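Sequence only, no structure available. Ideas?
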Amino acid sequence: MSGTRVEPLRQVIASEQIQKRVKELGRQISDDYKGQTIQVLAVLENAFMFLADLVRAIDIPVVCQFIKPKYRPATGSSASDVMEIFFSHEPDIRGQHILLVEGLVHSGVTSEFLMSDLRARGAASVKLVTLLDRQSARRVSLQPDYFGFLVDDTYMVGYGLGAVEQTNRNLPYLAAVPPRATVT
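Reply:
I predicted one. Tokens follow.
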């Protein structure tokens, strides 16, 4: 691989900072739902590490499930893209308190759609928790109920975050990805 030099990742949020904030979020969520059971729905792929640590920090009963939104391209000139939601299994959420877990809320479009869909399915309440909140990219009026860190437009990897088939999801910290690799 001579001739190609890949810029090193720059750590932005240390593992210790993440763990401290996740514990704080767990305490806050436990206090808010005291005496209740919550159904935690993690949005794959970016939320899986955050979910694992978060549910261990919550000290009330929790039911964990996974959902994966998928966009299907529109057909026809006037049609818009269609979002489908895939659950690990179809949950019975009628009358349940739902906590939607995201790794990153960017535009907010997917989160808003999922929350609306869960309410339409009869959830007693739907709240959103995200590790990273990129408010500068928001395209809808959405504010997470709980968030770990506000971030700018830097693309980050680590702690479960990254693009499909990208390395570095296993990093215990969050790192900024250089805009592009330097070729020498």
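The two ends are 11 Å apart (CA to CA).
Hope that gets you unstuck.
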